[in-house]
Automatic annotation (TrEMBL):
Coiled coil: none annotated. SUPFAM superfamilies: Cysteine-rich domain. The keyword Repeat applies. This is DC1 domain-containing protein. InterPro entries: C1-like_sf, DC1. The keyword Repeat applies.
Length: 139
């Protein structure tokens, strides 16, 4: 298996390289906007495949999130449900890859699944974000 700077993805034939994008991108896995660290196909000009770090499919294990007690979220490359679910954190429809807890019927975007509660009921932050500007606020 490649190191952390290179990863494989089950739906893409080339190794993906870790890079920091200055601009926005659309993740080919979850179909959501992204910025910052991502895995991108190094075949510049030929392939524009890019994934959030959390959307890499190789080696996924069930995920626990402290916001959802008694839930074990399984990673899915494709929606296993008959309808497009809404993310339990951001409330937006999930268009691509997702985490789903079959016990509680909760679904999460891969990025949202890694958000942490920041000691205030309306604040969540991603584990690698530290500035106030980078925090996601829900009003």
């Amino acid at each position: 298996m490649p190191g952390l700077d290179r990863q494989k993805d089950g739906e893409h034939g080339h190794d993906l390289k870790l890079e920091n994008r200055e601009g926005l991108f659309i993740c080919n896995g979850c179909k959501e906007l992204g910025f910052g660290n991502c895995y991108k196909c190094p075949r510049v000009g030929f392939c524009n495949y890019v994934l959030h770090v959390g959307c890499i499919s190789e080696g996924r294990t069930p995920l626990s999130n402290p916001l959802f007690k008694n839930c074990k979220f399984q990673f899915y490359q494709k929606n296993p449900l008959t309808v497009a679910p809404a993310c339990r954190i951001c409330a937006l429809d999930i268009q691509g890859r997702m985490y789903h807890c079959s016990k509680r019927k909760y679904s999460l975007h891969p990025y949202c699944a890694t958000l942490t509660y920041d000691h205030h009921p309306s604040r969540f932050r991603h584990e690698n974000q530290t500035s106030q500007r980078d925090q996601i606020q829900f009003l």
